[in-house]
Amino acid sequence: MLAAIMGFRPFRAARRRRILERSPIPDELWDWALKEHRIFRWLGEADRSRLRELATIFLGEKIFDPVDGAEVDEELRVSIAAQACLPLLGLDLDWYDDWSTIMVTPREYDVRQKDVDEAGVVHEYDDEFAGEAFSLGPVALSRADVEASGWGDGYNVVIHEMAHKLDGRDGRFDGCPPLRPGMAAGAWRAAFSAAFGDIRSKMERPPSRRSARRKGPRIDSYAAESPEEFFAVVCEYFYEKPHLLRSEYPEVYAQLVLFFGRDPAEA
Ligand SMILES: [Zn+2]
Asked: Residue 232 C-alpha to ligand 1 middle, in angstroms?
């Protein structure tokens, strides 16, 4: 087993060097992607060139699969690659090596859901999805939602789905990715469970006309769905609105700084 692993890594490194040499992202396209999206503004020179390398290899290794007539042009590919690799600046591409396909739909799509309630009655309904991350499988992204991502307003379907992929690296989608050396699982759990409890309580509180605005959650209420959705949503805010996340949930923000190895609010 060890021999296979040792043989595999140099092969991968050589393949990645070849991608960088033979399939660079054209300057014009790369400059467009960085200027077009506000979330890249805080990056210094070194991070910009690392992001470009990561995005180039990402494009060489991932397969784009248009669904329902979605148009997948170079701008969209580079835009997805750059945003997908942003969380990897302090990590590396191996975090995404257990999946390879990105399905692109033209816009949000309906998924037939099925729930069984406490009385055993099956309810079927359509849910609208902007994206999905399948465990051990592809990622689905709606083109319209990719185009609405990266503007610095808190919404980012690409980072959201990539966060699910990071979370699931240890085989569990539970809002806790495998932590990096030096991080304490107890500190992570304490920060995230307190914040998740807070947003749940804000959602459950009956709306009061006077206090609704002040007391309601300041981040997308979808975060209150589950611990794994909370993690994916705060990752969006970490890059889209870092100051807001830091002021709302400073402990969560601090854990994400340790995990991602970057501090967008301080840059
Ligand atoms: Zn999600």
From this structure: 6
